[in-house]
Amino acid sequence: MNDTALLAPFDDEVVRGVAGTNSVDEEQLRSALADHQRTMRENPGVEDLVYEWRKRFDDAVLHRTPETFFMAVRETVWEEYGAHLGLDDYLLAAVVAVHQEQVLRETAVDSSTIDENAVALVVSRPSS
To answer: Start and end of every DUF8048 domain (predicted)?
Structure first.
């Protein structure tokens, strides 16, 4: 599976902007975003993760399309991914910022309904 498919839910403008704002190398950020998407697909799988998050968190699914889930999860989910992927704090913050910005730009998501204790997470669904 190539990085282009894994990065499909993210606008290039968002990734570029977050990289610049956070002083993170853009290619390193893209690689971390792709690694995160790959990890969710491979272990335990997108549908299983979304099911688990729906059980654990209120209003976890903000919106879904055939290609993407727009989620609201707790910060601990991101902390676990950061540790699992070996991301330093700066790179993890940039990855989270890309997800957050992408959700805010999704017109089908009413960002005012996102719980103040929630953090955005975009999940790319594998094509059949």
So the answer is: 8-114
pLDDT in tens, the chain (128 residues): 568 889 999 999 999 999 999 999 999 999 999 999 999 999 888 999 999 999 998 889 999 999 999 999 999 999 999 999 999 999 999 999 999 999 999 999 988 888 889 999 999 988 75
pTM: predicted TM-score of the whole model, two decimal places? 0.94
SS (H, E, C) the chain: CCHHHHCCCCCHHHHHHHHHHCCCCHHHHHHHHHHHHHHHHHCCCHHHHHHHHHHHCCCCEEEECCCEEEEEECHHHHHHHHHHHCCCHHHHHHHHHHHHHHHHHCCCCCHHHCCCCCEEEEEECCCC
Place of tokens 């792709």: 34
What phi and psi, each to the nearest 5 degrees, are found at residue 87? -85, 135
* β-pairing verdict for 119-124 and 68-73: antiparallel
